Amino acid sequence: MKYARLTKEQFEELHAEFASFLATQAIDKAEWDSLKINKPEVAEQELDVFSDLIWEGVLSRAEFLEHFSKNHIFLFQCFETHVQSIVLKSLVPETDFLTQDGLQWLSDNMFTETIEMKVGKKVFTEDRNASIFELIQQGAFLSDGQLFKQINTIIES
After folding, report:
1. Closest C-alpha to 145, from 70, 46, 71, 79
2. Residue 60 burial (CB < 10 Å; 0-12/13-18/19+)?
3. Model pLDDT, residue 10
4. Model confidence at 155: pLDDT above 90
5. DSSP code string of 23-57
6. Which of 27, 53, 113, 155 has a 20 to 30 A CA-CA distance from 3?
7. How many CB atoms lie within 10 A of CB 93?
8. pTM (two decimals)
């Protein structure tokens, strides 16, 4: 398995897609039920293959990621060969970007000496999708890139 198995909730959301996936393997409902009981290891392999296919599709389309922690916000824009990053760090220890108040504080103090801002670029040294998946495993999530674009526009001006 290249990535991670989808959760039960994700499988439920993708029920129709999973049924189609099994159909492409000539596995109907009766055979799937039989596999789960008589050959659970084969059923597990099918779940893993499907999970990897879904992850591959999601990661291939991923463009923006965000990761929030108490005092840091990491914003990423993913390209084919590299990732651009903007890292915001609060120099006020009691700030908490995980709260609405913390985000409001950021908005009010964005371009003051209480916010440290760094930009960076990292070339993918391994598979692009595996690198993006690693960021997700560390707590990043896919986003529409609105925050990245807003800050990047201001930085580039």
Report:
1. 79
2. exposed
3. 94
4. no
5. HHTT--HHHHHHHHHH-HHHHHHHHHHHHHHHHHH
6. 27
7. 8
8. 0.86
Site of tokens 């609405």: 100
Other beta carbons less than 10 A from residue 90's beta carbon: 20
Q: Which residue has 């006020």 as its token pair?
A: 92
Structure tokens at 17: 């897609």
Question: Cα–Cα distance between 153 and 50 in angstroms, integer?
Answer: 39
Conformation bin of residue 42: beta by default, left when phi > 0, alpha when psi is -120 to 50: alpha
Task: With H, G, I as helix, E, B as strand and everything else as coil, classify residue 118.
Answer: strand
**pLDDT tens digits along 51-104:** 999 999 999 999 999 999 999 999 999 999 999 999 999 999 999 999 999 999
For tokens 């029920």, what's the residue? 15
C-alpha distance from residue 143 to each of 17, 47, 89, 97 (Å): 23, 26, 19, 16
Closest among 79, 144, 145, 91 to 117, alpha carbons compared: 91
Question: CA 33 to CA 93: how far, in whole Å?
Answer: 54
